[in-house]
Amino acid sequence: HFEQRGTFIKKLVLERAKKAGFDAGNGPDAATHVLASDCSGLGSDCMAMKRLGLTCSHLFASDVSVKSRRFINANFSPKHLVANALKRLDCGSMTGYSCGFPCQPFSRLNGRRKAWADKRTRLFDVALKTISTKEPAWAVLENVKGLAKYYPQVRAKIRAQGLTKKYVTLVVPMCPRDLLKEHARRPRLYFLMVRRDVAVKVADLVHFVRLALSDICKSMPKPLALESYWLSKTGPSVSKTRHQKAVKKNEGFQPKWVKRHAKLKKNIRSDHIMKAKLLAAPSADLGLTPRESGALQIEWARRGCPNTFVADVSQNAGRVPWGISGEVPTLSCSGKIVSFDSSTPNTLKLVSAAEKLQLQGVDLSRVTIPKGMTELDMAKLAGNAMHVDIMALAMMLAMTMVNWNKYKLGSRMRTDKTDKH
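That's the Modification methylase DsaV (M.DsaV) (Cytosine-specific methyltransferase DsaV) sequence above. Prediction below.
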C-alpha cells in the first residue's frame, strides 16, 4: 500500500514535468543523491526517498530528542548524527537538504507562542545558513500554517542569507487529507527551494507546481479503509492515577470542566445527549478520565451522533479536534485519539502510538523500533513527524525542478577549481 502510493506520486510528477517540457537530465533517477537534514524527527525524508525508489546516502541528521536519534540511527545510519544543530560542524557537501524546524513558536494552538522571541527559531536561521553555505541543488523546509502570519520576517531572513539571488523559493500549503486523500489531517507549509543556476525554466515553476498538485489531487487513489490501520481492537489502556490524585487532593472541589460541560450540554439536543451517555462505560474501560469521557460524549452529540467519529479527547470540550467519515484530526505529541463506529458494537478504541505512525505514512514492516522504546516515546515521534507521503511529494517536486545535467556539470567544474587551489 505505502510503496504503491510513492510510485504513483513519482509517476504523476514526472508526467507533468514532461508535459511542461522540462529538460531535467533524465530526472531524479539519473542523479546520485546525498541527503542531509536538521530537526530530523523520525527521518521522514529518508523514508520518502526509499518510497520514491531513489537511492541516496545519508550525510547527517540532527535532533534534540534522544529517542529520535536512536530511531534514525537504527534505520538510516547517517554518517553524522548530532543532538544540537546549532553546534553542528561542517559535514561535507550534499545534493538535498530538509528541515522541519520547530513549530511551537508559530502554532495557533500554542496560546503562549513567542514567534521570533522564542530561542527555538534559531534553528530556522541554521537551516538557511546551511543552504546558503553548502548550496544543495534543492531543499525542503516545513512548518505550520501559522507561520504565514510572519511572512515579512521570513522573507527578510531569506534575503539576509543571500538566498533570494541563489534560490527560487516556492511556499506551498499541503495536507495529506486534501491532496493525497489520506485519513490524517496535517496542514503544513512547505518551502520548496531550487538553486537558480541548475533550475529548469524558472519562469514556469509556479505553474508546474500548481498543475502537478492538481493532477495529484484528481488522480490519487483512495487509501485503505481507516480500520485497516488499526493493529488492535482497543488500543493501549491509560492510567487513571492522575485523576484519582486530583480527586483525593481536592475532595469536595468541583473542577472547572464540570461547569464547562454543563454549559455546553444546554445547547445540544436532549436525545443526542442521551445517546452519547452510552459511551460512558466503554470510555471508562479504556481508562479515559471523566473529563475526557465527557468531552467525547459532548463532541459526538454536538455533531449529531454520526456513525463514524474520531476525536482527540486530550483537549477541553468545545475545542476538541474531530473527524468523521474516516478523517483523523491532526496528530500531536500528547494527543489522545479515540475512534469508534456507532453502527458496530464494541468498536470504541484508543489509537496506539504504532497506529499513529502508520497514519503518518510510516510502513511499520520496513522500520526497526529500537529496544526500550515506550508507547509515550513512539507517540512523541508520531506527533513530531512530517507525513512521509507528503514529504515524498514535496521532495519529488523539488528534485524535478532541477536539471541534473546542469548540476553534474557544475559539480565537476567546482571540483576542478578546488583541485587547482
